[in-house]
């Protein structure tokens, strides 16, 4: 990996005063090189070390977010007892009873795409789309994605 972090001097350092440095990113935009501070400017090693530890903590948080992202959303569908081997009617019988709209949407969206489309076809052709969760479904269903938005 290319070295992108640098120690940078404070831009408004007092003449003859204590040295102040911070951590910065070296950005290259076209042929220009820019230093962008990402920490406060410090007057001691210990203070700078605290800033570096804060940056490391922030990066650790980003790694956890990335791990969660790549793992995918938690399976609300399985928590509701929905599975890929169920018939669309059986799935709808469970979804239709959910009172909380966010849980209803998450349960439907947690199904695989092919199954979502089969359940959608069942709802749109066999259910009264003007009442209950079928009405919520018909208002929020996006055919292009096969998901409730």
Walk me through this protein's architecture.
This protein has 149 residues and is α+β, with helices and mostly antiparallel strands. Helices cover 48% and strands 16% of the residues. It has 2 domains: 5-71; 76-148, no CATH class. It has helices spanning 45-71, 76-79, 88-95, 101-109, 113-126, 132-140; strands at residues 5-9, 21-29, 32-37, 141-142, 147-148. The chain has a 3-stranded antiparallel beta sheet. A two-stranded antiparallel ribbon has the order 4-5. Strand 2 and strand 3 form a beta hairpin. Helix 3 (88-95) packs across helix 5 (113-126). The longest helix has 27 residues, at 45-71.
**Rg, Å, rounded:** 27 Å
| H-E order | EEEHHHHHHEE
Q: Could you tell me the strand content as a percent range? A: 15-25%
Overall outline:
elongated
Q: Which regions have little confidence, pLDDT < 50, spanning 5+ residues? A: none
- Tell me the count of domains: 2
Spatial ordering of strands, largest sheet = 1-2-3
- Give helix % range: 40-55%
